[in-house]
Structure formats: structure tokens, C-alpha cells
Amino acid sequence: MSRIAILGGGSWGTALAIVLSRARRKHEISLWVHDRTLAEFIRRDRENRSYLPGYLLDAEVNVTSEIRDATSGAQILIGAIPTAHARAVYSAAAASVSLGSIFVSAAKGLEPATHKRMSEVVFEVFSRKSVPRVAVLSGPSFAAEVARGEPTAVVLASSDAAFTAEVQDEFAAPNFRVYTNEDVLGVELAGAMKNVIAIAAGVCQGLGLGSNPLAALITRGLAEMSRLAAALGAEPETLTGLAGLGDLVLTCTGALSRNRQVGIELGKGRTLTEILAGMRTVAEGVGTTAALLALAREAKVELPITQQVEAILHEGKPPREVIRDIMERPQRPE
Predict the structure, then answer these.
(1) Can you list the domains of the chain with their CATH numbers?
(2) pTM to 2 decimal places
(3) Which of 44, 176, 201, 289 is deepest in the core (most CB within 10 A)?
(4) Is-contact 72 92, C-beta < 8 A?
(5) 95-119: per-residue pLDDT in tens?
(6) Is the pLDDT of residue 157 over 70?
């Protein structure tokens, strides 16, 4: 029986604890929750009412706010921490991580301060002791639907095919299908970029626009994602798979998308400060936009949609001006 430590007691970390307790292979699961009071409530009620209400944790899932308690002896660690806080949490966990352990990053975004992908952060954090084998989990997967047991397909990426197959087998569960991929770079970039396009999709809805602009946005957003990913060395096929097109469609159209919801409120005229003040969960696209633009400048790649999302988020540009500027860009081949 493998011991799994899930770092992060938000909606996604909680959903992973639920789905992995149903896995075909039995596991000893610990869920680390940063907030001590919340951990106590979840442990007592077996329900995370703050982030994933209505879904019960298995009685055998250990819920703790002590990171050493969660990680000590764990063969598999899953990082489900918002990217801005991941480095600090992983650094705290490093002291109790076992040699030869597996680290699965389940966060979708870039570290705002450094523009690094989460797998890069993991390698930096653990470099002084022992670098665990690292994989990345991504794809179209709303936490509530995963917890509810709805059919979900995700992708697990690592450069080592044999290792990825090992983790795939550990994670296989009813209605939770795990595909493998060797393109870690492409999977991580896709997971970060789709959040920004989803904010733009929400803006369209908030402005009261119809289906034509949404279809155009998703299509051109995918082209934008593909350009940057290819320039940085990712495989083009990854962007048409679950981590790319699959997650892009879900996040741009699904009612449970936090990034899309931010865009909707921006389109209605609310300020970013007001929107974020009313959100308990994190919309990763807000902090990822500037990081993506920095990578694009280094790679000499143009990201017009991402640039305009940044202008709405952090420069106060009116959304209707953004739509006008995008539509009035010089004509060009597709």
C-alpha cells in the first residue's frame, strides 16, 4: 500500500483525496491543510465546506495541518498549492521527504515572481537533498465533478515513460482515466496559458457577447498557446490534447471555471480588486498573465490576447476597448 501525501486543502487537493481513495490500488492518504482550524473542521465533519462543500472524504483519509505528519514516509507527494505559495510549502515539506519519492505537481500556472513552471520549482527546492522523480498532472478536470465521480480524463506527464506508467497505475480509479505524455514542458505551459484565455472568454460573456466571438477566441487562443509552446520547445501535439485544447474548452465554457468567472465580472465593469476580495479560491490566470508575457518577450513571440488580458487586469483598460483593438489588428493569414 503506497502512502500518498496531498499538499493543499483547497478544492482540487480535496477532490484528489476523494478520487484516490476510490482508486483500484489501495492507498494510505494524508491531506495537508494549511489552516489549522479548517483542518480540524474537515477532520471532524469529513467535508471541506470552505472549498468543496457537499462531498465527503473517506473515513481513512488523514487530515492534518502538520506538514511533517502528512509527508513523513510518503512514497508519493501531490502538490495542489496555488503557484504563488508552492515554493514555500514545498520547502517546508522537503525536510521530511523520503529518498526515492515521487512528486506529482497538480497546479496549473507559473510562479509569478520567477516565471518558472512548477516542476522547475520542485527541482530547485529539493536539489540540496534528493530530487524526487517528478510528474505533472493536468487536463480538463473541475474539482467538484471529479469528487462527484463524473467521467474525467486527465494527462500525466514525465520524461520517463516507465515511471509515468507506474504513477498512472497508482492513480487509476473508476471514472478517472489517466493518459500519459512525455512532454512535461508542453503540459505545464498549456495548463498555465489556458487560464488567461479563459479570463478573456469570461470578459466576452460579461459584455453580453454571443457564440461567434467565443468560438473565435478559443480558436485564436489555442493558436496563441501553440506559438509560445513551440517557441519554448514543447511538442505541438500536446496543445491539441487534454492538457491543451481539452482544458482550454472546459475553462472557457464551464460554469465552474474561476478564471472565466473573473472575466465575467470584469466584463460587467467590476474592478479586479473588488472581484478578488470576494473570492475564496485562486484564479491562477490573474498572476500568470505577466509571467507568460515575460516568457513571450524572451522568445520573441506575439501574444495579443494575453497582452489585452493583462491590460484589463492591471492597467485598467475598458473591456470594450480591448475587443475593438483586437478586431482592428492588421489583417493576416490564419
Answers:
(1) 2-182 (3.40.50.720), 185-327 (1.10.1040.10)
(2) 0.94
(3) 201
(4) no
(5) 888 778 899 999 999 999 999 999 9
(6) yes
- Residue that has been written with the C-alpha cell 493583462 in this structure: 310
pLDDT digits (tens, 9 = 90+) for 198-210: 999 999 999 999 9
Position 256, amino acid:
L
Identify the burial level of 309 via C-beta atoms within 10 angstroms of its C-beta, where 0-12 means exposed, 13-18 middle and 19 or more buried: buried
Active site residues: 194
Amino acid identity of residue 128, one-letter, is: R
* Cβ–Cβ < 8 Å for 207, 315: no
Our CA angle for 178, 183, 187, nearest 5°, is 65
> Residue 330 — pLDDT band, cuts 50, 70, 90?
confident
Residue linked to cell 478520487: 19
Return the residue matching grid coordinates 470552505. 50
Report residue 191 as a C-alpha cell: 495548463
As given in the structure block, the three cell numbers for residue 11 are: 478544492
